[in-house]
Amino acid sequence: MFKDNNLLMISTILIETLFIVLMNQQIYLAHDITNLKVLLPLANVLVVFMGGLALFSIKGIERNVKKRVEVNLLKAHLQQVEGLLNSLQSQKHEHARHIQVIQAMLYLEEIDKAKEYIDGIAQAYQPSDGIIHVGHPALTALLNSKCKVAETKGIDFAFSVKCNPLNIKMHPWDLCSILGNLLDNAMEAAVQNTGNRRVALEIKYEDNQYVMYIYNNGPAITAKERKRLFEPGFTTKNSEARGYGLYLVKKLVDRYGGNIEVKSGERTSFIVHLPDQNQGRGLERVVI
What we know:
Heat Shock Protein 90; disordered C terminus; alpha+beta; 7 helices; 60% helix; five-stranded mixed beta sheet
């Protein structure tokens, strides 16, 4: 479909250009343009028709690009969830094996060996490899996967969830799409810093709304760039996903009645405000 629209658009523009050139050539060479005047209304109709067809093709290409970016983002989120599930499955298998060994030692009354075995497990355990839970399965998968991405890029990534994210009335895939895009954007900016690279996320409840702060210490965004930041296809780099990623973020935030602030100086901050859909219903908010 995408290739067909491309071909249609290119063919239409080429035919329209050739038609206009031929008409101009005929007018230039003709000694009497009386006969040509009779054809001008038809020529105008053809030009307008082909122009409309070209615009239709361009719109179709734009829609297809947006859908392709959305599909790629969804695939990325599914891969992150799959990675988390694989990690949890491997930990479950490892824990079950240790329990079986300890159980066997206790049945054989090898108490000292069991204690020694438990001490060995405790020493070998690396807390940094554990999963950090934030009370929201999809968000847990996203943030832990971003920790791994940040580690490979040499970025100091920290996050803090100071409210119960389950109270945010938003589809999990939409929440992950918003935060995933903004974190990817922040990390892409942070890697341009030749010093300490930092990205941070903070989610909290304040002033009857949920607020998400995404920080990075990459290059500042100019005032001119900030005005166009959420336009479809706009990017300061040759990155299609980024050009449409921020556009999709804005689109999703608007859908849920929120808004986004962008501040840039020594560090860049994207601040997402989402209204509390539970306000007035007396639901308890749990602080994590």
